């Protein structure tokens, strides 16, 4: 469908680039906007008469608790975004300096925690951070502490859990941008006498800002909708908005008020995007405006330049440390090891538990056995759920990358006044809490006969994954040189050929990242699966959820281990083939 | 169906869409398999327990095949959508008493027309025109026997840090928590409702800052007891039993427990309602109910079931006569009326 828009034959009508966004817009309009609009109408409709009412909004305005919860939600989301980007930046930088083959393997390591269900990860953190948990026991045994440190059931616990979940996203969003930075630029700055600080702060860093900005917004907006982590790792002060929406939908069955709270969340996110746009410009994400070779000279830009110069001056004294060749690399090694340890920490718990002989998550295990693997591999229910999850995730990765990627391409090339609206639409599924999307989708899909079908699951997951694909591809497009297209065109290449032979190869890193994000989004998705599967078409996270009714049993750990190994094999094989 | 649903797409469009959908092969398959029921239960150990107790015996007796599927923890949203869109992906579904009230108010439940003779031995609280309770669960106190050396006898132990030192955990929900506070303050379990909310919050104020964990999910409460993270905890008996079965040094205190009931409901307008009703009535039998207690630490509602249950197993079930007499029924009508307001107040109280 999209390809026909890029029809190279001169006889065809040459449609504007904005048309590339149409498939994604159509999907979102039917399966996202329409159900959301219906929900929104519920929020202003009188339950008894069907007329208009403002009672639900009045309740929101007059109940201060929702405003404190909104404040807490913002605070946690901002802290998560800041730490994810701050801690992830040096890691991404480290990755970007590697040869591409080694980088792929290391990036897989960063992604590794993604392949364990986040339910399992959260429980692993509970085992690690608890009062009698692994870390406290360790610290007390070596005499570092004399009484347990409270690392969980407070804000610290929530931030640890959320940064852990979001950092891979931040790193993989920044990485393609950093890969696109021409290394010779810093080299050139060096030959002109710039020190290490100036080379980084005045040359490299500004070029990486689009990646930083995209990662920040992405992690912030995703964090707004979190509920499992604050519920399990938080204390009494950490209630987030999504939790209250779930209570309204599931416990109180007050969909009208749930709709009001959901619109509050959407508005909050839109305001955040608007503020962000004022300071950084959305073009840093969408890739728009990348043609312009003359940078503006607004006051903000001047201020930004000043800050960077100050940073360069402040860090100059450190330039002198260890100026021997290769020293940077060595000093640079400890940090990534620390960060990778942090990312993989829950897996250190999950692996031994998969081999436990006990029927609980006791850690360290009292004995070892293969019984949980046997249970998993001999259960037709678990195996069919695994197969379905892989299938649905592959299909989702394909559709979301194509649709989201084309939409990013459309916005990067188009100067239409609709750009802003399309941009907001593409990000919208990320902003609305999944439980709200799930309820709306279930309602629509039940009418269309799509409930309990694989098609329904793929559609649901695709619309959840589109924002990630859109942003990731958009970020690499930002540094894409469109003059290459012109050059190709003057050499006689048609649009399709340009896309296939010039654009796609150059965007490869971003497209692969996008596909991975989409795959992971689907593979770990629970809420929509609970509703759309109807209990009949079970995916892996849904099966895990069902299985942990009474307690988290070690089958989940065994499943996680098998899935992780399978995914690693597939990705490594894919990389072999590429060569 | 007169109330405005999620969507007031007009009914005729819907019927037309439904008719079109009926013409597709997937729906044909469903129509062909008319001698079968899809039954939604909470999954996990429930699927095993119910299969042995209800599904297999029912199929053996009637020839009607049963597919057990796992439903969401709170299926009300799904239930509502199933009825309003008339897509009956489940024929029968387990409900809690509170879900029953919500669904009844919105007219989403099919009447069961239970034969009174067949349910004569079932607890009266479990028999409703549109729901038949099959199992009883209870909110109880559990403690770590390694760290709490003196056995607590009631909720006041939770407030007594001198005699019962240790880390404590309550559910992050006003339901049961307010009742617990009142009982600890000396209110008689039979005279809890309507709740003296002011008194309850005042009592909770005393320990608010000393509660180490406010748990939210059932599996989490099991993990808290199992790992020794906390020493005293209020929660559902079966979740604690899972920890005890897993070898955790812990005990349950039945005194002051608040029980509630789970059972079958049928979505309104289900074309297979007659068959579904037959299944529900089947589940009232004592010997059938006794069978699920091997897998589930829930109490049968037909108290004659205890004729078929070994005494050591009975000791851990909420409806065993020795346990049941120590507990009282949580009031669903009270909570239906006040839940929204009290949830808001409880959240504000937690954040303050």
Attribute tags:
heterodimer; A: 579 residues; mainly alpha; MetI-like fold; B: 352 residues; alpha/beta; D-Maltodextrin-Binding Protein, domain 2; eleven-stranded mixed β-sheet; 19% strand
Q: What do you see in this structure?
A:
The complex is a heterodimer of chains A (about 575) and B (about 350). By secondary structure, chain A is mainly alpha-helical. Chain A has 28 helices and no strands. The longest helix of chain A is centred in the last third of the chain and has 34 residues, at about 380-415. The model of chain A is unreliable at about 1-10 and about 285-295 (pLDDT under 50). Chain B is an alpha/beta fold and about 350 residues long. Helices cover about 40% and strands about 20% of the residues of chain B. In chain B, α5 (about 95-105) packs across α15. The longest helix of chain B has 20 residues, at about 330-350. Classes of the chains: A mainly alpha (about 575), B alpha/beta (about 350). At the A-B interface, α2, α4, α6, α12 and α21 of A face α1, β2, α4, β7 and α9 of B.
């Amino acid at each position: 469908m999209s390809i026909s828009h890029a029809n190279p034959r001169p006889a065809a009508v040459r449609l504007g680039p904005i048309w590339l966004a149409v498939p994604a817009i159509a999907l979102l309009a039917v399966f996202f906007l329409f159900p959301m609009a219906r929900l929104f109408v519920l929020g202003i409709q009188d339950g008894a008469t069907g007329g208009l009412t403002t009672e639900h909004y009045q309740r929101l305005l007059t109940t201060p608790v929702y405003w404190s919860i909104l404040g807490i939600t913002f605070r946690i989301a901002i802290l998560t975004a800041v730490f994810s980007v701050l801690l992830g930046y040096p890691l991404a930088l480290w990755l970007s300096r590697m040869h591409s083959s080694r980088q792929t393997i290391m990036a897989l390591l960063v992604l590794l925690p993604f392949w364990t269900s986040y339910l399992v990860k959260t429980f692993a953190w509970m085992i690690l951070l608890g009062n009698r948990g692994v870390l406290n026991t360790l610290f007390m045994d070596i005499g570092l502490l004399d009484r347990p440190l409270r690392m969980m059931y407070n804000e610290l616990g929530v931030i640890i859990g959320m940064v852990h979940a979001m950092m891979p996203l931040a790193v993989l969003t920044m990485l393609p941008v950093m890969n696109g930075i021409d290394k010779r630029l810093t080299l050139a700055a060096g030959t002109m006498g710039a020190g290490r600080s100036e080379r980084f702060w005045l040359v490299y860093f500004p070029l990486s800002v689009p990646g930083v900005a995209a990662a920040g917004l992405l992690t912030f907006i995703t964090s707004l909708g979190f509920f499992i982590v604050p519920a399990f790792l938080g204390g009494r002060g950490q209630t987030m908005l999504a939790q209250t929406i779930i209570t309204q939908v599931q416990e109180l069955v007050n969909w009208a008020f749930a709709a009001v709270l959901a619109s509050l969340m959407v508005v909050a996110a839109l305001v955040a995007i608007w503020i962000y746009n004022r300071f950084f410009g959305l073009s840093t994400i969408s890739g728009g405006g990348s043609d312009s070779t003359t940078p503006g000279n607004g006051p903000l830009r001047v201020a930004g330049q000043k800050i960077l110069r100050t940073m360069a001056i402040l860090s100059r004294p450190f330039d002198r440390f260890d100026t021997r060749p290769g020293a940077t690399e060595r000093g640079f090694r400890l940090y990534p090891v620390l960060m990778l340890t942090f990312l993989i920490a829950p897996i250190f718990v999950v692996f031994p538990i998969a081999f436990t002989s006990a029927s609980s998550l006791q850690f360290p295990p009292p004995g070892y056995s293969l019984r949980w693997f046997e249970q998993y591999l001999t259960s037709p229910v678990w195996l069919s759920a695994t197969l379905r999850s892989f299938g649905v995730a592959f299909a989702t990765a394909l559709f979301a990358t194509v649709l989201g990627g084309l939409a990013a391409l459309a916005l990067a090339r188009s100067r239409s006044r609709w750009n802003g609206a399309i941009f907001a639409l593409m990000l919208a599924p990320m902003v609305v809490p999944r439980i709200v999307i799930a309820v709306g989708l279930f309602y629509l899909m039940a009418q269309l006969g799509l409930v309990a079908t694989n098609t329904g699951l793929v559609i649901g997951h695709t619309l959840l994954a589109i924002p990630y694909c859109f942003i990731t591809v958009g970020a690499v497009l930002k540094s894409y040189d469109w003059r290459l297209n012109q050059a190709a065109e003057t050499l006689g290449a048609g649009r399709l050929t340009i896309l296939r032979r010039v654009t796609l190869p150059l965007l490869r890193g971003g497209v692969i990242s996008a596909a991975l994000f989409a795959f992971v989004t689907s593979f770990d998705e629970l809420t929509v699966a609970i509703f759309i599967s109807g209990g009949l078409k079970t995916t892996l996270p849904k099966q895990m959820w069902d299985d942990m009714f009474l307690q988290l049993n070690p089958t989940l750990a065994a499943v996680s281990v098998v899935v992780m190994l399978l995914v690693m094999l597939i990705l490594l094989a894919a990389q072999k083939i590429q060569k | 169906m007169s109330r405005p649903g999620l969507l007031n797409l007009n009914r005729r469009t819907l019927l037309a869409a439904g008719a079109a959908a009926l013409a597709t092969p997937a729906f044909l398959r469903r129509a062909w398999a008319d001698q079968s029921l899809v039954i939604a239960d909470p999954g996990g150990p429930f699927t095993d327990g119910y299969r042995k107790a209800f599904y297999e015996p029912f199929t053996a007796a009637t020839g009607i095949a049963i597919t057990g599927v796992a439903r969401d923890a709170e299926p009300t949203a799904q239930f509502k959508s199933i009825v309003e869109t008339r897509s009956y992906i489940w024929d029968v579904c387990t409900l809690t008493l509170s879900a029953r009230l919500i669904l009844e108010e919105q007219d989403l439940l099919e009447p069961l027309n239970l034969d009174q003779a067949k349910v004569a031995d079932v607890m009266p609280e479990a028999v409703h025109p549109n729901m038949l309770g099959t199992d009883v669960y209870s909110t109880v106190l559990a403690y770590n026997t390694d760290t709490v050396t003196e056995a607590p006898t009631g909720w006041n132990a939770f407030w007594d840090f001198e005699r019962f030192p240790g880390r404590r955990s309550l559910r992050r929900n006003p339901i049961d928590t307010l009742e617990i506070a009142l009982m600890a303050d000396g209110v008689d379990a039979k005279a809890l409702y309507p709740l003296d909310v002011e008194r309850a919050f005042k009592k909770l104020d005393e320990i608010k800052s000393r509660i180490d964990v406010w748990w939210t999910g059932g599996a989490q409460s099991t993990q808290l007891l199992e790992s020794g993270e906390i020493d005293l905890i209020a929660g559902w008996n079966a979740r604690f039993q899972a920890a005890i079965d897993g070898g955790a040094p812990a005990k349950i205190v039945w005194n002051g427990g608040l029980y509630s009931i789970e059972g079958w409901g049928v979505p309104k307008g289900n074309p297979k309602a007659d068959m579904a009703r037959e299944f529900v009535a089947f589940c009232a039998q004592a010997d059938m109910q006794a069978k699920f207690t091997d897998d589930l630490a829930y109490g049968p509602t037909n108290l004659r079931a205890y004729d078929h249950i070994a005494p050591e197993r009975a000791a851990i079930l909420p409806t065993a006569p020795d346990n049941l007499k120590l507990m009282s029924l949580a009031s669903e009508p009270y909570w239906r009326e006040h839940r929204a307001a009290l949830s808001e107040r409880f959240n504000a109280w937690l954040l303050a």
